[in-house]
Amino acid sequence: MDDRNTTRLKQSRAYARASRRARVVMEQPGGLSALAASAGKKAAARSGALAGIWQSVQDALRLVRAYASGTYREIPWQSLLMLVAAVVYFVMPVDAVPDILLGFGLLDDAAILGWTLRTLDGDLKRFRAWEARNEPAASAPGADRSAAGYTDI
Asked: Do residues 107 and 121 lie in contact, with contact meaning Cβ atoms separated by under 8 Å?
C-alpha cells in the first residue's frame, strides 16, 4: 500500500476511533498488557502477511509490554499513543477494511502498523538498545527470551 493510501487510512474514522480507544486502553489498569496479548495472538496468526515488518512488530509489542509493566518509560507520550493506536487499529475486527475480507482486510492493518513503525523507528531503536543493556541474556543469539521475561508473539 502506498503512502497516499496510508495517509487516507490515518485520516479515516476507523483510525480516529482507534486513537480514541488507545487513550482509554492506556488509562485502564491492565489495558496495555491485554492489548499486547491480543495483538500478539492476531499477529502470530497472520505472520505471513506481516513478514516485511514482523521483527519490528515483535519489538513494538515487547515495548508495549515493558511500558505496561513499568520497566520501560523512555518513550515520549505521543509516540506511545501513536503506537498503541496502531495496535488497537490492528486488533479491531472492523476498521477501514474489515478483516473478514480475506486477503484485503489485513492490508490496511499492515499499512498502519508499517507506517507507525517507520515513524517511530528512533523510539524502537532506543528501546532495543535499552533492552540490550538491561537484558543482556535476552539479546544474545540463540538466547531463550522467555526466560528473561519476554514473550514474543
From this structure: no
Give residue 113's identity as a one-letter amino acid code. Answer: L
DSSP type of residue 53 = G
Q: What is the DSSP letter of 14?
A: H
Write down the H helix ranges in 50-149.
Answer: 54-69, 77-91, 105-119, 121-134, 136-139
The pTM is what? 0.76
Neighbours of 114 (CB within 10 A): 18
Predicted confidence at residue 63, as pLDDT, reads 97
**How far apart, in Å, are the Cα atoms of 140 and each of 27, 59, 85, 110, 144?**
34, 15, 31, 29, 9
| Residue of 64, 16, 56 whose CA lies nearest to 36 | 64
If pLDDT is split at 50, 70 and 90, which confidence band does 142 have? very low
Q: How confident is the model at residue 74 (pLDDT cuts 50, 70, 90)?
A: very high
Q: Are 119 and 56 a contacting pair, CB within 8 Å?
A: no
| Amino acid (one-letter) located at 36 | A
What are the tens digits of pLDDT across the range 21-68?
A: 999 999 999 999 999 999 999 888 877 778 888 999 999 999 999 999
d(CA 145, CA 91): 24
